[in-house]
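in:
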């Protein structure tokens, strides 16, 4: 029973369901709609409602950022596996136009980007990969652009020199 539960919560679908009941996402109205089986991509969306609306009736900027906050770290951790340390390092959001209605963001960790990270960290040094992600409205117009920088380093294996 425990092994089935452990497998379920570590599967993309299980993680999606857990994130969708996670307090900060519920509070902002964010839903993860898709995580690829190989963790190469994910999609999130957020509908405009009274609890994520700002003073002028559009999406609250903090809620827009919360949509994208954990996604690249989550995808990359699962693509690289347990031999790597992956942390969010920094982020910057540029608000382009007011967000109304349902907004969404799509994240992708390509095979090329994954190999770049593996090569850059092979000697145990840190690497700071960057991604830009657009938050778009229902018409596909960009509402905000977020630049995410992650910290990645291969874990030191037992017996390796420090």
């Amino acid at each position: 029973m425990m092994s089935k539960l452990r497998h379920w919560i570590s599967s993309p679908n299980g993680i999606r369901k857990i994130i969708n009941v996670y307090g900060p996402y519920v509070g902002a109205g964010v839903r993860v709609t898709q995580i690829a089986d190989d963790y190469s991509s994910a999609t999130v969306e957020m509908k405009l409602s009274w609890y994520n609306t700002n003073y002028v009736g559009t999406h609250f900027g903090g809620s827009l950022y919360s949509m994208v906050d954990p996604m690249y770290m989550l995808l990359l951790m699962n693509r690289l596996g347990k031999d790597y340390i992956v942390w969010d390092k920094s982020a910057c959001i540029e608000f382009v136009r007011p967000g109304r209605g349902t907004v969404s963001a799509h994240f992708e960790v390509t095979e090329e980007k994954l190999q770049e990270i593996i090569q850059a960290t092979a000697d145990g040094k840190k690497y700071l990969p960057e991604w830009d992600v657009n938050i778009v409205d229902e018409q596909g117009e960009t509402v905000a652009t977020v630049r995410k920088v992650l910290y990645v380093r291969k874990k030191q294996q037992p017996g390796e020199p420090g």
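note: The CA atoms of residues 47 and 61 lie 13 Å apart.
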